[in-house]
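Study this fold:
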Amino acid sequence: MSIALTALLLVLFAGMALRAPIAFAMLTAGVAYLIVKGQDLGLAAEQVLNGLYNGYVLLAVPLFVLAANLMNAGSISERLFELSRVVVGQMRGGLAQVNIVVSVIFSGMSGSAIADAAGPGLVCIRQMLKKPQYSAGFAGAVVVAGATIGPIIPPSIPMVIYALVSGSSVGALFLGGVIPGLLMAALLMAGVHLIARRRDMPNDDPVPAHERPRTILRGLLPLSLPVVLLTGIYSGAFTPTEAAAVAALHALTLAGGVYRAFSGRALFAVTLESLRASAVITMIIASSYLLNYAFAAEGVPGHLALWVNGLGLNQLQFLLLVNAVFLILGCFLDVSVMLLVFVPMLIPTANLLGVDLVHFGVVVVVNMMIGLVTPPFGMLLFVTTALTGIPLKDIVREGWPFTVLLIVALLLMTIFPQIVLWLPQFMGYVTR
């Protein structure tokens, strides 16, 4: 390892240890590499600007963020909650089952796990806490686990970013996440059912028959968003990037025009918050270009590919090794670091072993979503605790069965690639 690369890693991990904003830690590490290497510091700006200029797909990220925030600011979360109550609310642990169904529906609109937890997840927690059979820790754990489905079922912000770093088709990745997302939901619902039976939770009261038609009608209109998005993308009416703009316009029309759920001042606040979130994501992506330049200049991806090839691993063994490493890293590192720094280093190895990059991408993103619910630094844990006041230790204690179920889903889609690849191949996407 060269002195310059050592300096980069030391500065990067020092920044993370000091809890500096990850974008600044990455950028500082990249600059430290250029200084030690004796290269022109203007190269930092060149790498960042060239990367952003050529990253057309990145336009989808701020627009999907805006769409999710518009839906959370309006009454869409509440409408989806009531609609899901009609479907599964009468089951044992009904409100917990409702949360998972809402997460599946909302995932087809936002593409963000944080937006899921902060929007419909918060609505579900408030309803569960009104009933004595649901402990606060259990309510928080169900919401945290369900929110991991958000970026798996399309659209998905992490998959857009993965497409950027891997060169994979966004459309194929979106389709590849559908069955895995439904598998995760099915396992979580089975887990809720078993816990509800073991704790002898009573069946929740069903929605009165005379209220069901009105509730269904109120919830059907938001369901038009995923239909419009997916139909538009796979019919060729618009690209996945353009679909993000359609999603934002659709959410604005529903929440602001049809439901009149917020004022002009509220719209300004939502837009400002979306700009802040998008700026953070863009800064992280921009900083990653400099780090990736440094790793490429040092030949790290190539050396890693040769090392793994020398181990004689087959595709499954490689994927299981990646799972093990990423599940551990997910306990300590931000998703953006793994997605933008570590994944590009693994792409040459995946290519060398003949791993399908769509399959690899979905497996990696599911890995990262599990990292959001594992202590000590699971972002979804902190978000849910901050929004609800539920103690972190209670959510972690109640959440471990759901984490195990998510890992089971991850292993199934790792061992059986067709869980991911069947739908993209059926829809005509070429996969290896």
